[in-house]
């Protein structure tokens, strides 16, 4: 058995309490990177940029946004996992990289439930289905009727949306082919150009394009119709059990020191309640997740994993 002298023991205690031993009382002392797992045009990207500006006012350091699209968010998640667990690299993760990828991707190179811890929820939004304004498709039933006579290609950009599209395909018994993209902006372009029959994605990212008249919304996925598009039916009006939302939240590595994590939590919490973020939620139609602190967001992530696993089992999706 190794015995420590009193002086040696006190020395180790002092070392453990020092900043060099893992505390970071001066955090942040340099710029912070915020990694977004999708390209510009997504709800995750737009909310990240507004919140980054608000957070740096509290933290006193710049917060730079970096887009790392690809592999349904896995590229950004792996980059955060490989970075030091010091709070200087944070991720804005959505339901796809943080709850869905473990269900649909075999040998996923990260574990979102064990290797990451929540900082704070940001917003929750309905999914929206849309077609080109010049398309003959006026409703979801029109789309499904067309799908009975020819194959349909539906564009989107994450595994969560892939499951949501597959769920509609199973319920309607109409084949719908999911076409993956790195971000929603290119989906808009290809739907408008009629390279895709339809697109599906986050409500906030698509709302302004729909309101401009370039796209026509044919369905939303919430419990009720959205007040910004009151004439657009919910999928629940066709299938009573179909309700689906996308969400975003901030995450850091699980090993991030508690005091650093607490400062990030406080900065996000304060940023969420600024006039700028209030306007963002109003413009995009997203529901703010004010009460989703670290513990609440962690539980929500786990619940969402179970919910999406149920959807995957229902529609027969296996990890690939």
Task: Sum up the structure in keywords.
globular, 2 domains, 42% helix, D-Maltodextrin-Binding Protein, domain 2, 20% strand, 11 helices, 320 residues, alpha/beta
Given the structure, what is the number of helices? Answer: 11
Order of helices and strands: HEHEHEHEHEHEHEHEEHHEH
- What is the CATH architecture annotation of the largest domain? 3-Layer(aba) Sandwich
Spans of at least 5 consecutive residues with low confidence = 1-23
- Helix-strand makeup class: alpha/beta
The CATH class assignment of the largest domain is Alpha Beta
Q: Strand share of the residues?
A: 15-25%
Q: What would the principal axes of the Cα set say about the shape?
A: globular
Q: Span from first to last CA? A: 50 Å
Rg over alpha carbons: 22 Å
CATH homologous superfamily of the largest domain? Bordetella uptake gene, domain 1
Question: Could you name the CATH topology of the largest domain?
Answer: D-Maltodextrin-Binding Protein, domain 2
Number of domains: 2
Tell me the total number of β-strands.
Answer: 10
Task: Round the mean pLDDT to the nearest integer and report it.
Answer: 90
Fraction of residues in helix? 40-55%
How would you describe the overall organization of this protein?
The chain has 320 residues and is α/β, with parallel strands linked by helices. It folds into two domains: 26-125 and 246-315, D-Maltodextrin-Binding Protein, domain 2; 126-237, D-Maltodextrin-Binding Protein, domain 2 (3-Layer(aba) Sandwich), CATH 3.40.190. It contains eleven helices and ten strands. The protein has helices spanning 6-17, 43-59, 74-82, 95-104, 140-147, 159-172, 184-192, 203-212, 258-272, 275-284, 294-315; strands at 32-36, 63-67, 89-94, 116-132, 152-156, 176-180, 198-202, 215-220, 245-253, 287-288. Strands 1, 2, 3, 4, 5, 6, 7, 8, 9 and 10 form a ten-stranded mixed sheet that branches. It starts with 5 loop residues before the first helix and ends in a 5-residue tail after the last helix. Mean pLDDT is 90; it is low at 1-23.
């Amino acid at each position: 058995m190794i015995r420590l002298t009193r002086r040696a023991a006190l020395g180790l205690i002092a070392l453990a309490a020092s900043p060099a031993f893992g505390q970071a009382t001066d955090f942040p002392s340099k710029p912070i990177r915020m990694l977004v797992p999708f390209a510009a045009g997504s709800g995750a990207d737009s909310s990240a940029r507004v919140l980054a500006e608000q957070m740096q006012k509290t933290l006193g350091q710049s917060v730079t946004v970096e887009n790392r699209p690809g592999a349904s968010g896995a590229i950004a998640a792996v980059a955060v996992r490989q970075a030091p667990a010091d709070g200087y690299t944070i991720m804005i993760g959505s339901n796809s990289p943080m709850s869905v990828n473990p269900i649909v991707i075999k040998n996923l190179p990260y574990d979102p439930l064990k290797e990451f811890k929540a900082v704070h929820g940001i917003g929750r939004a309905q999914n929206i289905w849309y077609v080109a304004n010049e398309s003959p498709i006026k409703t979801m039933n029109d789309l499904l009727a067309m799908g009975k006579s020819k194959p349909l290609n539906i564009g989107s950009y994450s595994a969560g949306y892939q499951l949501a599209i597959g769920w509609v395909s199973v319920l309607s018994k109409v084949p719908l082919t999911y076409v993956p993209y790195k971000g929603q902006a290119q989906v808009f372009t290809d739907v408008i150009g009629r390279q895709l029959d339809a697109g599906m994605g986050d409500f906030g990212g698509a709302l302004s394009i729909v309101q401009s008249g370039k796209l026509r919304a044919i369905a939303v996925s919430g419990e009720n119709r959205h007040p910004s598009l009151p004439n657009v039916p919910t999928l629940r009006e066709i299938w009573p059990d179909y309700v689906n939302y996308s969400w975003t939240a901030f995450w850091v590595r699980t090993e991030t020191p508690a005091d650093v994590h607490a400062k990030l939590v406080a900065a996000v919490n304060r940023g969420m309640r600024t006039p700028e973020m209030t306007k963002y939620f109003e413009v995009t139609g997203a529901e703010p997740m004010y009460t989703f602190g670290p513990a609440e967001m962690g539980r929500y992530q786990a619940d969402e994993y179970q919910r999406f696993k149920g959807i995957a089992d229902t529609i027969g999706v296996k990890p690939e």
